[in-house]
Amino acid sequence: MQDGLRRVTEPTLDVLQALLDAAGYELHGWAITKQTQRSGPTVYKILERLATAGWVIARWEELAADVSKPRRRLYRLTAEGAASAKELVMARRPGLVDKLGLATDWMAFR
């Protein structure tokens, strides 16, 4: 088991990669679905699993009272989640290590 994740599928790796690419910034679900080219239900189910595992923190966007658009749910990796995601992506997608600099650029999460 990968630190609380029972199943690691290609869509899960895609979502983790999108969150890693955000480098600690928050993403809303629609941005993740666009980046991963996965369906909304697939992405949101994965985000729920990642949150349950403690890899992701989710919060509702705060909007001013006069703004008439729906709030978005924002997601970002926890420090533990970032380290675990990095390790998992490096193991499952070794070609991305050099491309993304994963071996050296992840101290910001610690």
Ranges where pLDDT stays below 50 over 5 or more residues in a row are 106-110
Sheet with most strands: strand arrangement: 1-3-2
Our count of domains comes out at 1
Strand portion: 5-15%
Largest sheet descriptor: 3 strands, antiparallel
How many helices? The count is: 5
The third-level CATH topology is: Arc Repressor Mutant, subunit A
Query: Architecture in CATH?
Result: Orthogonal Bundle
| β-strand number | 3
Query: What oligomeric state do these chains adopt?
Result: single chain
The termini sit apart by: 22 Å
What's the overall geometry? elongated
Radius of gyration equals 14 Å
Class of secondary structure makeup: mainly alpha
Main CATH class: Mainly Alpha
What percent of residues adopt helix (DSSP H or I)?
40-55%
The pLDDT mean sits at 86
Helix and strand run:
HEHHEEHH
CATH superfamily name?
Winged helix-like DNA-binding domain superfamily/Winged helix DNA-binding domain
Description:
By secondary structure, the protein is mainly alpha-helical. The protein has a single domain, classed as Winged helix-like DNA-binding domain superfamily/Winged helix DNA-binding domain (Arc Repressor Mutant, subunit A), CATH 1.10.10. Helix content is 48%, strand content 11%. Strands 1-3-2 form a 3-stranded antiparallel sheet. The radius of gyration is 14 Å and the shape is elongated. The relative contact order is 0.20.
Labels describing this entry:
110 residues, mainly alpha, Arc Repressor Mutant, subunit A, three-stranded antiparallel sheet, 3 strands, 11% strand, elongated, disordered C terminus
